[in-house]
Recover the amino acids of this structure.
C-alpha cells in the first residue's frame, strides 16, 4: 500500500462518490480494481482474497471479494448492502459508497448516493443501457448528484470496438440529459483486465479521455456549502448551570449549510422569533465565525424558547414554514405507502406526525412517463406525494439544499424507515441546447 503523509492528506480535497450498476455488470470488480491498482489495499487483505480465490479454483485473485464482505454476497456473487470504502491518492481523498445493483436493493442506492458528489454507473458493453441503468440514472438525477460517470465495462468481451462504446454513451447521455443531469463523462473500461480504470488502456487507442481514477482525482468538487443559505438544526440545548457557567445557555448542532458569524441577526423556526448571535463556541473555544459542516454551539442575545428540532437561519434569508409538502420520494420499505397512511416525518433534527394526503403520480423509468394517482407506492417505486404535517416545518427546496430539503417518513409503530423524500420539483430542468445558427457572434 502506498504511503501518504498526514501533511499531504491535509492539503488534498475530499470526494464522496457512489457506484451503481446492474447485476453482473462488474461493479464490485471495478471497485476492487480501483483499490488494488491505486495501491489502496493492505497486504493481508490481498492475501485473504488470493486464498479465497484459489479455494474456488480461480487462477487470478477475484478483486470483487475486496468489497463483497457479507457471506451472502460472496455466495451469490452479488452486492447486497451498502459498503463504504476509504482510500486516498496523493491528489485527493475518497469516500466510496459501493451500492447494490440488484433491482430489489435499488433503495440502498438512495442511501449511498444521498451524500455523493459523483456517481459511477456501470453498463455491460454486451447489454447496453437496460432498465436498471435508467433507474440508477433517475435516482442520481433525483438526488441532484452533480457529476455522473458512465463506465462502459467488459469492453474486452466486445473486441474493444469503438462503435459499441459510442452507441451506449450516446443513448445514456441523451436519457440523462432529459433527466436534467448536468454532466456525464463516459469511459470505456475493462475492470477485469484493468483497462482505463487506473492506467490507460493499450487496447483502445481511439479513446483519448481520462481513466476512471484520473477523472475522480480531477473533477471539480462542488460540495462547498459555505456560501449557501445558512442553516443550523438545533440538536441539543446546553445549560450546565455550574458555578463556572451559571448563566450559560447554548444551542448546539452541526451547521447544515452556510456560515454564521457573531453579530448576525437570526430567526428561530418554526416560531419565527428573532435574535442576535452573541457568541460561537467551536471545540470549547470562542470563534468569530463558523461554517458547514462544523459542529458548534451558538449563544444568543435573548432567552427565547428554543429546543431540539428548531432551525436557526439568517433573519433575512428564512425559508417559508408550511404544513403541506409536495415532494418526490423513493419508497424503500417492503410495506406499501398508501393514501391516508399516518407516518412520522423526520426533517433535520425535528420529527412530527404527518399523513399522506395524496400520491399524484408514479414515475415510469423506461420512458419517464407519469402514471396519475396510483394510490400506492411499492418498494423501490419513485413517485410524487403530498403530505400534511401536524406542525409547520421550515423546509427548503431540495434543489436549493440537499440537507434541509430532504426528509424521511417513518412507521410510528416500529420506527422502520418507509420513504426518502426530496421537497420540490422532481428533476432539474435540462440545459437548453444552443443552436449555432442563432449565434450572432457576440460574446457577453
Amino acid at each position: 500500500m502506498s504511503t501518504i503523509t498526514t501533511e499531504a492528506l491535509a492539503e488534498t480535497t475530499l470526494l464522496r462518490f457512489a457506484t451503481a450498476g446492474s447485476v453482473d455488470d462488474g461493479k464490485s470488480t471495478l471497485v476492487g480494481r480501483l483499490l488494488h491498482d491505486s495501491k489502496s489495499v493492505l497486504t493481508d487483505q490481498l492475501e485473504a482474497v488470493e486464498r479465497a480465490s484459489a479455494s474456488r479454483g480461480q487462477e487470478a485473485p477475484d478483486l470483487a471479494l475486496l468489497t463483497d464482505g457479507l457471506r451472502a454476497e460472496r455466495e451469490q456473487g452479488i452486492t447486497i448492502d451498502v459498503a463504504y470504502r476509504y482510500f486516498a491518492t496523493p491528489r485527493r481523498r475518497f469516500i466510496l459508497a459501493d451500492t447494490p445493483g440488484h433491482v430489489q436493493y435499488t433503495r440502498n442506492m438512495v442511501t449511498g448516493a444521498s451524500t455523493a458528489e459523483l456517481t459511477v454507473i456501470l453498463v455491460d458493453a454486451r447489454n447496453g443501457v437496460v432498465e436498471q441503468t435508467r433507474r440508477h440514472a433517475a435516482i442520481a438525477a433525483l438526488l441532484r448528484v452533480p457529476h455522473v460517470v458512465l463506465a462502459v465495462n467488459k469492453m474486452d468481451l466486445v473486441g474493444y470496438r469503438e462503435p459499441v462504446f459510442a452507441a451506449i454513451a450516446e443513448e445514456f447521455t441523451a436519457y440523462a440529459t432529459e433527466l436534467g443531469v448536468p454532466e456525464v463523462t463516459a469511459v470505456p473500461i475493462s475492470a477485469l483486465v484493468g483497462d482505463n480504470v487506473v492506467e490507460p488502456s493499450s487496447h483502445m487507442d481511439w479513446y483519448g479521455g481520462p481513466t476512471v481514477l484520473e477523472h475522480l482525482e480531477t473533477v471539480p468538487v462542488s460540495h462547498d456549502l459555505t456560501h449557501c443559505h445558512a442553516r443550523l438544526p438545533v440538536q441539543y440545548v446546553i445549560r450546565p448551570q455550574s458555578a463556572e457557567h451559571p448563566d450559560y445557555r447554548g444551542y448546539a448542532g452541526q451547521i447544515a449549510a452556510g456560515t454564521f458569524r457573531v453579530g448576525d441577526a437570526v430567526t428561530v423556526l418554526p416560531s419565527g422569533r428573532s435574535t442576535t448571535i452573541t457568541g460561537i463556541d467551536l471545540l470549547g473555544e470562542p470563534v468569530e465565525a463558523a461554517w458547514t459542516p462544523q459542529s458548534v454551539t451558538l449563544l444568543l442575545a435573548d432567552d427565547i424558547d428554543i429546543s431540539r428540532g428548531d432551525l436557526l437561519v439568517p433573519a433575512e434569508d428564512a425559508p417559508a414554514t408550511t404544513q403541506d409538502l409536495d415532494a418526490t420520494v423513493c419508497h424503500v420499505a417492503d410495506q406499501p405507502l398508501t393514501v391516508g397512511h399516518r407516518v412520522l416525518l423526520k426533517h433535520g433534527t425535528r420529527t412530527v406526525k404527518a399523513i399522506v394526503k395524496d400520491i399524484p403520480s408514479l414515475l415510469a423509468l423506461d420512458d419517464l412517463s407519469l402514471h396519475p394517482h396510483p394510490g400506492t407506492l411499492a418498494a423501490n417505486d419513485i413517485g410524487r406525494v403530498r403530505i400534511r404535517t401536524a406542525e409547520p416545518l421550515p423546509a427548503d427546496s431540495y434543489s436549493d439544499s440537499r440537507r434541509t430539503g430532504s426528509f424521511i417518513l417513518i412507521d410510528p409503530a416500529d420506527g422502520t424507515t418507509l420513504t426518502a423524500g426530496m421537497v420540490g420539483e422532481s428533476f432539474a430542468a435540462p440545459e437548453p441546447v444552443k443552436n449555432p445558427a442563432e449565434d450572432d457572434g457576440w460574446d457577453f
Summary: Residues 22 and 132 are 6 Å apart (CA to CA). The mean pLDDT is 84.
